[in-house]
Amino acid sequence: MIRVLLVDDQALVRRGFRMILELDDDLEVCGEAGDGAAALARAAETRPDVILMDLRMSPGMDGIEATRRLTQTPGSTAKVLVLTTFDEDDNVYGALRHGASGFLLKDVEPDDLTHAIRVVARGEALLGSRITRRLIDRHVTQTDTSRAARIDQALSPREREIFRMLARGSSNTEVAERLFLSPATVKTHVQRVLTKLDLRDRVQAVILAYETGIIRPGEGT
């Protein structure tokens, strides 16, 4: 069972998402919140697996600050999936940098919504979207080459190879097939990469690779 916390300042929006999620036996809405501060409290109480987080809420704490605090809370394992009304929302990039595992438009189709929740609950990230890559390309304007050197020193040759593949959006299965490794071995390597680089998940790996110039805009697949 995947426990989901709904965070939006509009009660009708929360109700609509609840009705969609409750149609699936493996999804459970464990709580709701109308602003960022309430989201922090409800997350502490309910321990959700995934938080659907509206970016623009008023008055009170917005979705970016709530995401930052949630992902930096010691012991927190909840994945944040941010919601926005339009795909050019500059706030999305801030949420991704602060630990969100992906984003969706509020007019998302029901099947796409439930699929996205399952993806991030598994510890994966919504990286295949062209919108996501265009967003990263647009915001990364400078590269930190000194940090890139530290990454190379921290990782083994195999881990560097896998890091670059993650940054291009490859799934564990794709990495395993290309490198002739078992999925279990790839999963272990991925976790080591994330741990060594102090990254929460794959989205942060992608952003780090772009910000250090390890991956250049337009290079990802």
Can you walk me through this structure?
- This protein is an alpha/beta fold and 221 residues long.
- It has 2 domains: 2-126, Rossmann fold (3-Layer(aba) Sandwich); 143-211, Winged helix-like DNA-binding domain superfamily/Winged helix DNA-binding domain (Arc Repressor Mutant, subunit A).
- Helix content is 52%, strand content 13%.
- It contains 11 helices and 5 strands.
- It has helices spanning 11-21, 36-46, 63-72, 91-97, 110-121, 130-139, 145-154, 157-167, 172-179, 183-196, 202-211; strands spanning 2-7, 27-33, 50-54, 79-84, 102-105.
- It has a 5-stranded parallel beta sheet, sandwiched between helices.
- α3 (63-72) links the parallel β3 and β4 (79-84).
- The longest helix has 14 residues, at 183-196.
- The protein starts with a strand and ends in a 10-residue tail after the last helix.
- 38% of the residues are buried.
- The mean pLDDT is 86.
Instruction: Please give the order of strands in the largest beta sheet.
Output: 2-1-3-4-5
**What class, by secondary structure content?**
alpha/beta
Rg over CA atoms, rounded to whole Å, is: 17 Å
Helix content: 40-55%
The gross shape turns out to be globular
Strand coverage percent: 5-15%
CATH architecture of the largest domain: 3-Layer(aba) Sandwich
- CATH class of the largest domain, named Alpha Beta
Q: What is the total tally of β strands?
A: 5
Question: Quick one: CATH superfamily of the largest domain?
Answer: Response regulator
Count of alpha and pi helical runs: 11
SSE topology string: EHEHEHEHEHHHHHHH
Contiguous low-pLDDT stretches (5 residues minimum) are: none
Distance between the termini: 32 Å
Number of domains: 2
